[in-house]
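Write out this protein's structure.
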Amino acid sequence: MSYGPNPWQQQNWDARAAGNFIGGGAGCGLLLFATLAGAGGTLRLLLIGAAVLLVGAGLLCVWAEIGRPWRAVNVMFNPHTSWMSREALLAPLLLGSAAASLWWPALQPLAALLAAGFLYCQARILQAAKGIPAWREPLTVPLLVATGVTEGAGLYWLAAPWFGQGSQGAWLAFGLLLLLRFAIGARWYRRLATQLRPAALSAVNQAGHGYNGGSLLPLAVVLVVLAAPLPPIAVAVLQALAGALAAAGGALFKLLLVTRAGFNQGFALPHIPVRGVRR
């Protein structure tokens, strides 16, 4: 690796770190959307269980990435300065309340509120990496939050049609989330395009395929379902397809953002010392 004025790709966070953002974001988004959409019966139990598993799997990914995993408890000790500490402190509360809501539905709104806080902490963790322009951009926070909620909405629609659930309002909300994610992502890219060096911008372009494809393709499906008279089985298949595309696109975006677009800024050398030459 060559350190110097040219940006270089960070090597500290790999696919396991990305797994935390993928699992945690999708799980929190699923819990939020399922709560707001009023999922009931067996579907509610399935979606909450899936949300708990996704968040737990994301935490296991980042735990596996730590060089000395049994020292992970140290992350709890700096909530006044670290968004990672805040995420870690919210995790047991989120998982506990979500699991308990399987038996006591009255706890589900609390679990959804904690999920929103957990998702926000995750977004701030990435944005706090000030040496990496693609991460530190302020729009990274709303983009990751919108991506997580949209992934969760996608997972909801992947399952809901087969249980005879999913209202017109929830379908419209899904379409609005897709549009919002695309709009924030496009603005995020335009801002970075004026700041990044060619190699870093190329990596951001690759990451952008995730939010572009994962937003525009399912949005087109949303419009088809709203506009065309289709038999119920076709509607169910298209809704599940749109949900899968939205979730997969968000996961791909976060994977590439962490593992490919994490270029350091590099540093400037305004005065290069030369032996034997006075300043």
